[in-house]
Design a protein that fits this description.
heterodimer, A: 258 residues, mainly alpha, Fumarate Reductase Cytochrome B subunit, two-stranded antiparallel sheet, 9 helices, 2 strands, 3% strand, elongated, B: 386 residues, alpha/beta, Rossmann fold, two-stranded antiparallel ribbon
């Protein structure tokens, strides 16, 4: 695993390959990412359809198809989100729910420095291996929006679902929003909020990937990140072997005095 | 016929044949989503029933529901169903007035306590101790409490009585409420919303009650499922145009004249539950979408606040007073976020350039990590130590 290697030969390559994002996390991530784009595109068409009026374009069932695609993409989205939430209680430490809601002191304390990094007050972000605490907190808000979006989506779907469909009985969800029209409005507003988040998310992952140079973007494909051992220490994840490795690096006078 | 019931005789006097009566019963069975065989049951029930007493109370209303029910173009069989009931109090149509009328109501309510049906029309104001609407010196809310409290069933006729309607629209100066909110705990309350409520649905509801002696299944907003179970959109005669993206874009354009979908003109059909496309209005003559006007969602609670602007199908963002601003606000916000991060990237890039230039000058390691300090001078030692 470690490329700590022979001292003296590769002094700067003190990186550890860590399996951060397990397959379900990656699948859920790309499931959400792809479906979100499809949902936003089809959703915008549903909200602002283009009138196709020439007689030669009759029976296109265009709106019908757009809505069909929207519903299937919504299925992918819903399953991905629910699977990811379930994985928060099943997966490894990096996917655990407490990486989203800062409960531990360490993560709470990491919020400030991360924010200061984004505000240019720090030059390098504090070394967290998985989500940094600020990102985790932002993703908590995003998950709340996901759930809100799914609830308003189901509320709208219940009105058109077949009377024999189980989703037909989800009509009560509309009253949570104060009626179908308000649910529709919420569905539209949250779409814009999520699109705004996409802009932020792509940028900060590229930024983190650049400044930390640990393969952040690539890790969402492979699952692996390349992190300096002291980040594992900083994050409070001292596996036995890593602890030993860290001791070794310190013995070698290899910095990491945090 | 010797044994002809008084009811059928009454019908005959009004010029309604038995055939017409049976036809009415079948129509009612269909309206209540029952099989055709139920028609016989309905016919039997209507003939046998003793006349239940009915009070029709009007509060903050425009009398529109009364008009809708009574102003049939020709005396229909449906109007006779109202005669099946003994309407003991209805301000608009009764002969008595003033003190006499109020006394008659009080007496009849006392005599038939727990047996009579009440129809409420109009919202009930609760502001200023109910002073905004009084009848015979009595506040609407007190009348409602008293009369609805002793009823076997209460029908909130029209959106005002059901959910507050126009008087309850923001800022709701009179503190108007629907019956369910103003008088909680009313027994067997049925909301017959819409502005006005469809007379056919009231007839069907009364017939249902007379036939089965119970109230029909209700939805989450207390409305009978047989009339409010499906959205306007799903039964709309223009639905195929919606699915084919054939939309009216301007009043009077070619698509409008061709009878295409009114979705883009603000139709609230997709979010409104009512059976308008099926029963229609004015004895099946037509209905709003049928004559080229989008649905305004009048059957849904708070439609004055939530369904406006009527000619746009999505409202704007509260606090921004431009009507169709939702997408503008959303697009601006999304672009703003992206722009802010791009600016962040530009600053990062410039700083990074500057730092790597400094590093070249000082010979510091690029890999040195810090959280809150400048690169420590000790970092040089890393190389030296190995």
């Amino acid at each position: 695993m470690s490329v700590l290697g022979v001292p003296g030969t590769m002094p700067k390559c003190e990186l550890t390959r860590v399996y951060v994002w397990e397959l379900p996390v990656r699948l859920a991530h790309w499931g959400v990412a792809l479906s979100l784009f499809v949902l936003a595109a089809t959703g915008l068409y549903i909200a602002h359809p283009i009138a196709i009026l020439p007689a030669s374009f009759r029976d296109t069932y265009s709106m019908g198809w757009v809505r069909t695609i929207h519903l299937y993409a919504a299925t992918v989205f819903g399953i991905s989100v629910v699977a990811r939430i379930a994985w928060m209680f099943m997966g490894n430490r990096y996917s655990h729910w407490d990486k989203f809601i800062p409960m531990r002191r360490k993560r709470w304390a990491g919020l400030g420095p991360t924010l200061r990094f984004y505000l240019f007050a720090l030059r390098k972000p504090p070394g967290f291996v998985g989500h940094n605490p600020l990102a985790g907190l932002a993703y908590t808000a995003i998950f709340v929006l996901y759930i809100l979006q799914m609830l308003s989506g189901f509320a709208l779907y219940s009105a058109m679902a077949n009377i024999h469909s189980p989703f037909h009985h989800l009509g009560f969800l509309a009253s949570l929003f104060g009626g179908l029209q308000t649910a529709k409005w919420s569905h539209h507003v949250v779409m814009w909020l999520l699109l705004g988040f996409v802009g932020h998310h792509v940028y900060s992952s590229v930024l983190m990937s650049t400044v930390e140079a640990n393969g952040t973007v690539e890790s969402m494909f492979s699952g692996y990140k390349f992190v300096p051992p002291e980040d594992l220490v900083y994050s409070g994840y001292l596996f036995k072997e890593r602890r030993e490795m860290h001791a070794l690096s310190q013995q070698a006078g290899n910095s990491g005095s945090r | 016929m010797a044994h002809e019931s008084s009811f059928l005789q009454e019908l005959k006097q009004r010029g309604v044949s038995r055939r017409q009566f049976m036809h009415f019963c079948s129509v009612m069975a269909a309206a209540m989503a029952l099989p055709g065989t139920a028609a016989a049951q309905i016919a039997q029930a209507l003939q046998k029933k003793q006349k239940p007493v009915l009070f029709w109370l009007e509060f903050q209303d425009c009398c529109g529901n009364t008009e809708s029910f009574l102003r049939a173009s020709s005396p229909s069989v449906a109007s006779i169903v109202l005669d099946v009931l003994s309407v003991d109090y209805h301000e608009t149509i009764m002969a008595a007035a003033g003190k006499q009328a109020e006394e008659a109501l009080a007496k009849s309510a006392a005599d038939h306590k727990g047996q009579y049906i009440v129809i409420v029309e109009g919202s009930i104001p609760t502001g200023e101790n109910g002073a905004y609407c009084t009848v015979g010196g009595k506040a609407a809310i007190d009348i409602a409490r008293e009369i609805c409290g002793g009823a076997v069933a209460t029908i909130a006729m029209g959106t005002c009585a059901a959910y507050g309607g126009l008087p309850a629209a923001a800022p709701n100066p009179t503190g108007a409420l629907g019956v369910a909110d103003a008088v909680p705990g009313v027994k067997n309350l049925i909301n017959l919303s819409a502005c006005p409520a469809n007379a056919e649905n009231l007839t069907a509801l009364i017939v249902y009650y007379l036939t089965f002696n119970q109230i029909p299944p209700l939805d989450a907003y207390g409305r009978p499922m047989f009339a409010y179970g499906v959205t306007i959109h799903d039964n709309c005669e223009r639905r195929a145009h919606f699915d084919d993206s054939q939309y009216v874009e301007k009043w009077g354009d070619e698509a409008h004249r061709a009878g295409y979908c009114l979705y883009r003109m603000g139709c609230k059909g997709p979010v409104t539950h009512q059976n308008c496309p099926v029963v229609r209005w004015n004895e099946g003559t037509n209905w709003p979408i049928g004559c080229g006007h989008p649905c305004i969602g009048c059957a849904e609670p708070d439609f004055w606040d939530k369904m406006t602007p009527f000619y746009r199908h999505l409202e704007g963002v509260p606090g921004f007073n431009v009507q169709s601003n939702l997408d503008l606000v959303g697009l601006t916000a999304a672009a703003g976020v992206t722009g802010a991060f791009l600016a962040h990237g530009a600053v990062s890039f410039v700083r990074h350039k500057k730092e790597s230039r400094e590093r070249k000058e000082t010979g510091a390691l690029e890999d040195v990590r810090e959280t809150d300090q400048k690169p420590p001078a000790a970092s040089k030692k890393v190389n030296g130590g190995e």
